[in-house]
Amino acid sequence: MSSQDDSRPCLDHVVILVSHETLVGLPDRLRESFTVAPGGTHADGLTCNSLILFEDGVYIELIAFFDDIDADRRSKHRWGRLKEGTVVDWAYTLRHESDFAAVRQRVDDAQAGLTYSDAVSGGRTKPDGTVLKWAVAVARDAQGNASRPGSLPFWCLDRTNRQLRVPYEQDDGQTQHPCGARGVSSLALAVPEQEATALGRVYDAIHGRSSTAGSGHGWRFGVPSGSAAGKHAIWVSGGDGASGITLVLRGSGHSPAAVALLPGLALQIES
């Protein structure tokens, strides 16, 4: 991870939930636009994944639950009841796990009715047998319940070298995509109107500053490579419609304006 502006949270990855059938047989439309890297099986045995790596160090995680797992265990998972074929969540990271204590304290001090949990150990095993370890922390409400996935970032804090988990610097073509996508430009989060103010206070606390990405609720993030290309902004808007996450990629001169990733899911690309 770049040493540039260590105080700024880095966007780590964006999570797209798919069926296991889709994960093991990715549709042609996806493979025609993106190079997909192998992932692995998570330590809890419930899920497996594949990755779309970008040259800015951020990645898209295509994650699926195994078909033969217990339905009750799946329903208790953070993403177990969410709709497949959609962007369901996203993660920030920090250069050092020890820096997370300051983030938690700022969020507590904001008194927005939301806090972050202790970091809980997690991991997965890569197809080559490499064991990856990290810790994850999620936002919780005043009653201790996990907040709705995607409304706030969860934190993925590496305990093994991040380059093992996200090998975007390897010169093997995994970050070269036919659609020309080079990284993540922005995330736009639609949330219920009654939640927007409290969420804004938490985002201010996470970033250690008020919205600076223009009008409305916007906050700037870093990327692991340290690149300054792209908007690198999180936008939050409250409304009466459905909640959701809109992911916008940063492309190159030959990139299309949008690509169909999955049936019903298209991603915008900014050249």
Automatic annotation (TrEMBL):
UniProt xrefs under InterPro entries: Glyas_Bleomycin-R_OHBP_Dase, Glyoxalase-like_dom
Superkingdom of the source species: Eukaryota
Classification via Pfam families: Glyoxalase_3
Glyoxalase-like domain mapped to chain residues: 11-198
PANTHER family found in the cross-reference section: BLL2707 PROTEIN, GLYOXALASE-LIKE DOMAIN-CONTAINING PROTEIN
Name of this protein: Glyoxalase-like domain-containing protein
